[in-house]
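Quick question about two entries, pasted in order.
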Amino acid sequence: MKRLHIVGCPRSGTTLLMELVSTCFANSGFCEHELSIFAPVPVSQGPYFSKQPNDIKQLRHIFHQDPQLHVIYMGRDPRAVITSKHRENPEQYFCNYRVWSECDRAAQAYLGHPRFLSLRYEDLVTSADSVQAGIARHFPFLEQLHPFSQYHLHAAPSAASQRAMNGLRAVNLQSLDKWQQHLPRIAEQLQRRPELADDLLRLGYEADQSWQQLLQDVTPVVYPCRYPERRPLFKEWEKSLRVWLKSRRYLRQLPG
């Protein structure tokens, strides 16, 4: 059974993509909101869709070994990612540049693989149906039911997904420039991690450094964030061990 798993840095649009894919492509089932790549899924004839953003950092032991695993990585302008507020705590930002960068580096290891597709949130909300056509070309086993541009007429997202998307509505461009409303946060993250500016050039989000003129008279401000600025090394080591053990179990359960 083919499994299509959606990953990406948190706050990159993975929930929206999951709702689009599960609504607009035929499938044998899909997770309600998020599901670990290591969680078992029902066995059936059609593809199963699942999503867990941070799993982009958990695939290294299993992706190349499982020919039925297909992955879509959702990328997004890091300025938009790091200025997305935590919905349950509006005083707290959800993500930071460190986490975005870790996910971006992890994704680069799979670029060009036929079972891996990298998308950009900006392209998805700008030209949803064209992106859908690209997904269908990349994964020929998918059968279209509805165009992405009409998903809101057919979708029935879970309460958790609706909270993550701030409600069900048509794909739109409203959030593309919202990061400009959070310039003190951008200034602080850029001051802490200057390589952010290079990433914007590398990924084509900016043609030069002139965008930094927006920050000319902005005072950097440190805000609370769900993720710490420094990697918790012991916790990460412990997680790596758990991932390795889960990967071994995953591989043992593969057919054949």
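Here is the second entry:
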Amino acid sequence: MPRELIDLHIHVGGAVAPHILWSIAHQQGFKLPVKNYFEFVELITASPDKVNSLDSYLKIMHQWTEKIQSSPLAIERSIYEVIGKEYRSSRVTQIELRFNPMKRNLHSELDLDHIISAAIRGMDRAVLEYGVRACLIFCLAREWDSRLNTIMVEKAIKYRHRGVLGIDLAGTESDALELKPEVVSQYEDLFAHARKAGLKATVHTGETRGTGADGVVAVVEKLKPQRIGHGIRAAYDEAAMKLLRERDVVLELCPTSNLQTNAVEGIKEFEHIVRTFWDRGVKITFNTDGPYLLNTDMRREIDLVESNRILTSEQVDQTLAWAREYSFIPRA
């Protein structure tokens, strides 16, 4: 019987099928730079000829997919479609969808609570139809000031009993700003506030090639997340791996994403990173990040790990067990 999979790290902005986005864009009257559907698919797909870094990958999401998803009807349909597609394609029976509602309200032209309520409706409908378990994670943005990020935390707390179970800190790692402890410290009170209110936390860090593990260490020590998004640079630092192990922080690895954005030089480096974490006792999970933007799904992510003999089938089963254990969704 096929494995039942779990995806802990999937962005709504990179997970909606092109034909759905095409339909939503026309329904809402968006003026697109292309007239042909297949040109549109190329526009919103992270093909190797136009995506060679995290920044270029994020640009597609910010410029097109997030904009198209910016209405209550659009975000409701988007989340409904993502959950159904992941279940049908890969038997993903537990999924944690992350997005930034404030990047879906057209710079405050739309009411934020309407966007969030619509997202919850889409999730509830998909859960009812497919029998899966799901939750939402709200992303804070590194490029924002504390006022906007505070609003996102307060909204997450407001809707914590309706399926918003965690917060994330996401955004570009340009200039390695997140590596500085004093910069990470500016989020310390926000994460403590969210934690006190019962929310879980994950943080994007240690994703970009050329940075070290300092950001991972600062985030773990100051923000105290249960999980880290990516965190691959920690594989080159024994102290960082020791800290991850001692604090019982789990990594959300995204194989195809790291390969496509050149976060790793190739499959051999990714293999080295995974095996280093395994040998040092750092708990890891495998996830999609952005299935349609990256042309992948959870089944392909697992196949990539097993077909390249990065881990054995039994070891992959252990990563899936960790994913369920450290999911923000309480056990049934």
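Reply: Strands lie at 5-11, 92-99, 133-141, 164-170, 200-205, 227-230, 250-253, 284-286. The CA atoms of residues 181 and 218 lie 5 Å apart. Hope that helps.
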